[in-house]
Amino acid sequence: MSDRLQLGALLAHPDNGGVRLVAGPADANWAGVVVETNEAALPEDGAGRLAVVTGAPPTRPWQQDALVRRTRDRGFLALAIPEADGFGTGTRALADRLGFSLLHVDRPMLLAKACWQLVEARDSLTLGYVRKVAQSIEYHAEGLADLLRHLSTSIGHGIALIDSEGVLLEAGGRLPSEVHAAIDFGPWVDLTQAGQGAAASVRVDSPSREGLRVAFFGDGLDDRQLSALAVAAEVAMPAVAARILIDEVAEVSDASVSSGVLRDFVDLRGRPDPDVERRMLERGWRTTGYHLAFRIVGRSRVDALQLLRFVTGALGRIAVDSHATTSGRGVSGWLTFAEPPEPPQVERYIAALRDLHVEARRSFNVATAVGSLASGSAGLTSSLGEASDAVRIAANRSTTGWFVRVDGLGLEQLLLAWTGNDTFVPAARSLLAPLQTGNGELLTTLSAYLDHESAVAPTAAALGLHRNTVATRITRAQELLGVDMADPEVRLALHLACRAVR
């Protein structure tokens, strides 16, 4: 069967002259192709082949019926001719009854070339795909998605970047789930057919992300097309891998900048600063209106950038203005409303954030906390601070699925609120007094350490210190305070105290 010319493969060919099935079997295949200017020039022995006639067909229904009968009587199994889509219902019914494929074609010679490639010139088919890929690689893409779109348009088939879990990006169509499930992620090249769908994929040699494949796919592709597309995928793969790396470097840089902007904004504690406001607005972050902040952190080691990718995608499905960025070992974000939302609306948005958290936990070991609704710059700062504090409680709350909201913490909410009142502040100052000696560097280091999720490297980067210096100061602070900072409750209490004193 693979040596025969298949209708499905012909329809899937990107340069098939605009051929369309008008009547007859949809799963037809033929022994070859004959091209003539008119029906009378066709040989008497069709031998189960496709007849391509370049001239115009007869216009009267009885003449069209006769054309189909004579071509079939000569032993041909199919006829492709211009204007065949204008044949009447009687002629179409005749073709169906005879099991004869009647095809309309806009450009018969282009169809003939496609047939020749599929039957006689596999190298030509492969070289055609490779040439188009090479031209696409020269295109200055704006990003990976843009590159895939250009490759798909040039090749004339769908293209997808996939891993074993599913489709990460695709263009030119949707990769069927049954085709994805049938792809073997082990070998360098894989040719897959499942149902009507097929794909030729190759492993992406990416230094930053493992388990990726780039796949060209489509319906009706035969073995020859898949083999040619596999070569095209191998040629395209280095460009795809390079684009992934370029985009990731840009993404890391952007995340670093946005994290710095958020840190500077929070440090202002609601005080106006035109420069920070300008930087916030440049990122599309509005501080006016009403805000509901959230904080997601890893309960074990997580890739903050990967987590941000997930959170950003999930936030896009929530119908409200939203923002997020990496912050320490997690992600901070908020929802913004131009007008104060009604309580039922707030509950729906919190439920949406809970759903986001549940979905995130399928891939990341995280805890999530949601602050209270607040207005303006000061309110955003407050809600972010509440979420940052409360997430430490969430990290130890298996009973709530490691998700808490400040408004539902009860007594613990009061503890968080005490950090700003006259009762808590003196107690916090007394607790931290041993760290106030000298220039207060121990207190400064401890505060930054707790702000950065008890991580030495980010703390050192934030303070401009060596990691060994930070580790030494934290050990000294524990000794002076007589506490065990391995205890999450101790860390929470100390963090609240540091916030109150600052």
Automatic annotation (TrEMBL):
UniProt family annotation: Belongs to the CdaR family.
Entry protein name: PucR C-terminal helix-turn-helix domain-containing protein
Pfam families membership: GGDEF_2 (PF17853), HTH_30 (PF13556)
Organism: Plantibacter cousiniae (nom. nud.)
Domain CdaR GGDEF-like: 270-393
Domain PucR C-terminal helix-turn-helix: 442-500
